[in-house]
Amino acid sequence: MSHSNPTSSILNQNKLEGPNYVDLKGNLDIVLTSEGFKYVLVEEIPIKSTDATYEEIKAYDKWFKVDEMTRCYILVSKANVLQSVHDVCL
């Protein structure tokens, strides 16, 4: 994730520390919406069957990549001590 990205800098400057969960959630909402990533939090992953069409494969691959980026944004928004606890989730 690039440090020149203005949306990611919001999260870098406002990490989850102590009682600021509501503020962080609002900032995370802004970042995910502006990046077009928020849908992975509410939509199910598209099915990628063995006989999937090109469009279905493309939709699956896109969802998977956006989900990965969303996880990164969430992790970067946590204080370092919390990041290390959640490294096993990746």
UniProtKB/TrEMBL annotation:
Top-rank lineage group of the source organism: Eukaryota
Name of this protein: Uncharacterized protein
Organism phylogeny: Eukaryota, Viridiplantae, Streptophyta, Embryophyta, Tracheophyta
